[in-house]
Amino acid sequence: MKMATLQLYTKGASVWIPHADTVWVSAQLLQNYKPDDDYVLLQLSGGEEVRYPLVAPSDLPPLANPDISEGESDLTALSFLHEPAILHNLRVRFLDYSSIYTYCGIVLVALNPYDELPIYGEEVIDAYSGQDVADMEPHIFSVAENAYRTMIREDKNQSIIVSGESGSGKTVSAKFTMRYFAVVGGAAQQTSVEDKVLASNPIMEAIGNAKTIRNDNSSRFGKYIEIGFGRKGDIIGANMSTYLLEKSRVVFQAAAERNYHIFYQLCASRQLPEMRSLKLATPEHFRYTNQGGDANIGTDDVMEMERTRNAFTILGMLPNQQMELFRILAAVLHLGNVMIQGSGRSSDRSYIDADDSSLAIFSKLLGVEAAHMAHWLCHRKLALAGDTLVKPMTSQEAAEARDALAKHIYEQTFKWTVHRLNSALRSQAGRAKTFIGVLDIYGFETFERNSFEQFCINYANEKLQQQFNRHVFHLEQEEYEREELTWSRIEFSDNQQCIHLIEGPLGLLDLLDEECRMPKGSDDSWVQKLYDQHLANRGHPHFRKPRMSNSAFIILHFADAVQYECGGFLDKNRDTVFEELVNILRASQSDLVVELFQQQGKGPSMANGSVHVGRRAHREHKLTVGFQFRQSLQMLMDTLNSTTPHYVRCIKPNDLKEPFMFDPKRTVQQLRACGVLETIRISAAGFPSRWTYEEFFIRYRVLLRMSQCREEARVACRQALPHLIPDSDQYVFGKTKVFFRAGQVALLERLRAEKLRTAAVILQSWVRGWLTRIHYDRILTAIVTMQRYWRGALARRMGETLRYTRAALLIQKTYRMLVDRHMFLLVRQAAITIQAFVRGMLTRRYYRQLLVERAVTLLQARVRGWSARRTFTRFRAAVVIAQCCVRRKAARRELLKLKTEARSVERYRELNKGMEVKLMQLQMRADQEARESAALKESLRAEREVAAAEVTALRAKIEKLEARQKNAAPTPALFSIVSQEVELEKRRAEEKAAQEHLQLTKEVETLQREKASLSREVEHLLARMLQQEQAQEALVQKAVSEATAAVRAELDEEKRKHQGLLREFTRLEQRYDNLSELSQLTEDTRGLRRNDSIFNWEPPSPSPQSLTPLSLSPFPSTFPSPEEVRRVSVTSPTADGRFTEWSSDTLMEQLMDKMGLTNEAKLEGEDLASAYDAVRVANKLLENQLLSQRSQWEEEVERLKVQLIRVSSGSSTHQQELLAARDQECATLRKDLRNTVTFRRLITQVFPSAFSTESPSSPQQKSPTVAGLLECRRRDESKLIKNLITDVRADVGATLSPGLAANVVFLCVRQADRRGDQSGASSLCRAAVASMKTALKKHNNDSDMTALWLKNVSLLHDLLTQHSTEQTHDSEDLLTLTFDVKDLRHSLSELRIQAYQQLVSITEKRLQNIIVAALLESEDIPAGLGRRAGPEPDDASVTRVLKELTALHAAMSRQALHVALMECAFHQLAHFMAAVALNNLLLRKDVCCCSRGIHIRLNVSQLEDWLRSRRLQTEGAVSSLAPLIQAAQLLQVGKNSPADAQALVQACSALNSQQIVKILSNYTPHGDFDERVSLNFIRMVQGLLKERVDAQPRQLFLDVKRVFPVTFPNEKPPSVRADQLTIPDSLKISFLRRV
Fold first, then answer.
1. Facing residues of 647 across strands?
2. What is the per-residue pLDDT across 850-863, written as a single tens digit (0 to 9) for each?
3. What is the pLDDT of residue 119?
4. Is residue 161 a contact partner of residue 640, using CB atoms and an 8 Å limit?
5. How many CB atoms lie within 10 A of CB 1622?
6. pTM of this prediction?
């Protein structure tokens, strides 16, 4: 041991000593070590003191690394490289940091967490893609990224070797590696190559994985997948090779183990209709699946079967082929249940019952003869001297032959499946330029009983370990040569001797193959040959013989000594299958079975070794399994040696499969076995610690005694190191780095700590003196202050006396002033009042004079008006008489016309006769009820009269009685007696009343007291009730608010899911379009024609059923074109114009020809100009239209009759509703009939002279219209869509007013709907929606055009909503559309969400590659914060980000989009930027420092200022940046004391516990006074975080693809007229006509 290292064994130093349970335990030295000491006194972590014996200095316990190396991400960066340091570092990272990955030089050590971790999402892939892996946290993706970038950069093949024992996570690591390649190297043209690569995993897991004691999903074969890449780095194909399938598992499983997963998946899916023909049952029913006991592993085998079948489908295997494969696998299960029975005297024969159901099912599934199979399972052929002999087999031999056949069938099926996978994964675009191979190979295995499989596995690991050792040594040598160091050769353990023992001449495999060729070879004779060959003379150093066994041998592997039992070696190496059984399978009726067993004659496979049957019947395989495995392993090693390897070592931390449980014994055992410790030993033999000159200068600047300039770092290091480390052999200088031997960094750390401690003592002395002086100054200041306050009190007392005197004088002065002011105001008010009265009198006098003058003028005007009106009345009477004569003649003509029309609609009235009868019946019923009501009223009136008469009679009787009583006068005596009695009664009544009054008074007082008490109780109860009501109201309000918040959250979540589905639908639709274009391009190359007008969408012409009567008119085809009739351009300033003249003769002839009128009906000459003939033509057209709709009306009437009959037994109310509905239908039909007469209005407009006898100069009659619309002919619709939407360029779109296209389309649609062409309006609207969708796809990378079409789609949606039938309108301009716009509104709603998502996605794509550089790496200080204002850099800085955001904001503002929509968009972008930046920060150690945190905070503050300057912070855009802001603050705050921990936890409310711990563990000091975060502080923070109620999600990374729901505001669009639109000539839509 070096003297410099011995100096570190001082009091207080930490060391490691062996321990029985934890392998190594930490201890602390209690005294300094001296070279002549026999022991060292140590104190364990529990406080116990022990003596550690020493024989020599080399027996000293290993030193512990300094705190700066605690939790180091690369084991080779540790100061002391030994086993306890590595084990402790892995434990700290695994348990305290929850980091399962750690670098060990070029090796990635991966500990299986036995838990689902959120570190494999696409956001993590994006974070690692294109990054320098040296700056990132260890991850399986970092190895994949390094391999991918090395392949692209050096144009050299790569390989990733994943190894480890069963259950360590090899398959999962390989799966995530292939997933990374599939995402990063996505295939060109969006094909499905990467999907096929990923789909191979569930298939191989189903047929090659099984449950073992150590792992529920253990790979029982090795595989090497070569993923081919094209010239652009995209995946174009893949190829898979397999090694040593464990065939014995098909027929035998140990306790608590399972067969291959595919068998249990088939049994679980037995109830499916397509699986019933397989005749399967539960796994316990079959011998090949019930040997291990409980078959449940916690997964749903039905779902796994569905995944397997989906994977087969992705790889192109048809369902019938899948069922063929499943039939073969099911047949293997039934073959295991075939019962073989012994017969004969000594049971030397065997037979199978003819009624064996399992054999029958097996034969039926494979399509073979059951009798032949039963015969050859129990017999075999022997060739003796040219003769063939059939020999019966015992039941044991027949059972072995049956199991051998089952293994052989499964092996052939496995090989065929791999072949099909390779065919599906084969490149279709030529040969791959380079490839990356992923090797998922079994690790070193040692069990209580090791057989042939473990021998082959450990042999493969010996070869891989040799290649690994040589590669590690080669890299170390390259590093020293690159730095131009003078170094001596490093010795490393080469296991060539062990490999030579296995594969060399007369090695174990050679002797095994030789014994297999012997006629009577056996396992015992083979192991005896091994003893004779390798134990003779001095013996082989890696071969041993067990003491207590003669049928086993021991091989000293690089990881451990393994004892192999030789029983079964020869049988497994031969892998015997008789030719007769194979021939039966070759004659199968199943094509797949024939294909399986015909392939084996084409030569041996290098994967697992297939059978090769000789010519003779009893001849066994020529190529043994060991020979084939050695050949395939050698080919694998040649492939690996030709590539650049990358190593992943998977470690199983415990055998209980508990999440985040660390077993040191098992971990150390695997570290020794997988070669990690050998890597450390090779690194420790040289210079394991290495620092760049700049890093060394920054860290140890306090130890340097010269200039502190960073530019002179190399010179400073070269001059200072000889003084710090006297032994020059402990360090060496390279070109860019300084190298140290093990332990020297710890020595430098101790010197640095002492230097800092001395400086701290000096600083403390100065600070204490400064504090004492401050204390003295404070006392002196306090004394002076007290004196000043006392003197001030005396001065304030004097001042108070002076203020009282001054106040008295002020009061007197003010009072006198108020008295004088009051008198002055009274005098002034009187003067003003007198003036007002005088001025009012003068004004009224002048006003009366004006009234007189006005009355005179008015009288004169009235007289003159009366004279003028009398003259006008006489003239008008004369005109009216003339007009009456003219109108009488016109009315007679109109009467003839109306009579003709009445005859044409007579049939229609007959059809509606039933309705009129029904109405008459209802009227009669109403009349009857009215009569009954009148009768009841009459009876009621009579009864009232009788009652009045009785009342009158009673009143008369009462009056008579009263009069009679008055007439009877009393006598005096009687009167006195009566008066005395009255007085007596009166006194008694008064006495009684007094007593009752007294009693009542008492009762009233009692009641008042009770009332008062009750009132108090009522008030108390009311107060309590009020409080309870308030509390209940508060609870109800709280519950309502919570429920509202929950409903809103649920609604937002549904919106987010819906919009996410829309985004996925858009992506799939785009992918479909890409594939369609690719397919079309392929067809074009084959000579097919292609329609280039993919964007020139022409709306389909409406069907005849959708045409209205007006659209059926023949006039559009016979009238002159609008260019000939009236040329009114929508771009012209005026719409005034008139029709030109044309020949009406030709027009009427064409019209009559189209209506089918005969020659007799045609008119001649001048009669065609008369109104009578025009009306006749119109009536004929009307008759034709009515006849064409006759059938439809009859069907409608029949339907109404059926409804009336159906509900005839119902309630009268329901019948009345149906009658009202029928009346409404009839009214609608009449309205339609009246609408058909509008054709007459068209003729009136065309022939104004036909219906008027006035002169041509008379004003033309116009039909009432809604002005301000646009009219587009049906044949111009495609042209309108093309010029207005599809072919609009970006430069033209920038000049258009917001929503122009939507306004134009809507005005055309409204005009078409107004004139009755509902189908045309609907088709035009749908064509516009489809074209807008096409335009969005066309401009999917242009934010300006996307914002343009987002505005148009939103505006068109709002216009249709405003004019839909669901809205109520008061204005004539807001008449509803007559056709159904519900589907159109839904399509537009979906389309505007897609447009919004596309607009945000465009900006996200532009920001994707600059976010990390701008927010995390940019160090630009904005103007006003210490840097001169000037041009800022635009390359990957915050300025670049702000430019992109400004461009988006300008595009949305230019289109006048709603502010709420802009807030939602920038909220989404803010979350995206924060998520990408924070995810990268969590994975990169180089940005986790204080200085970088300051820059991050400054960069984010610029984003905040930008958002606030544009008032976009209300929707949560700024709050989305909170996680990144708090992460930056976390890097800046102190991280030492408990108060720091408490403040840190309170401040980081937007970060969850995992993110906080991750940032603290990644914190990297940059500077002299910056230190790593201690493990104790991290544990303290973790304890505080457990107490915190964490509202943040528990995942480590933010979801980059999270979609916030967007809600479009319901705003009422302004009414637009055609004359208000400014349409540029560049659109070329002048063919539109203003209406």
1. 107, 161
2. 999 999 899 999 99
3. 87
4. yes
5. 9
6. 0.63
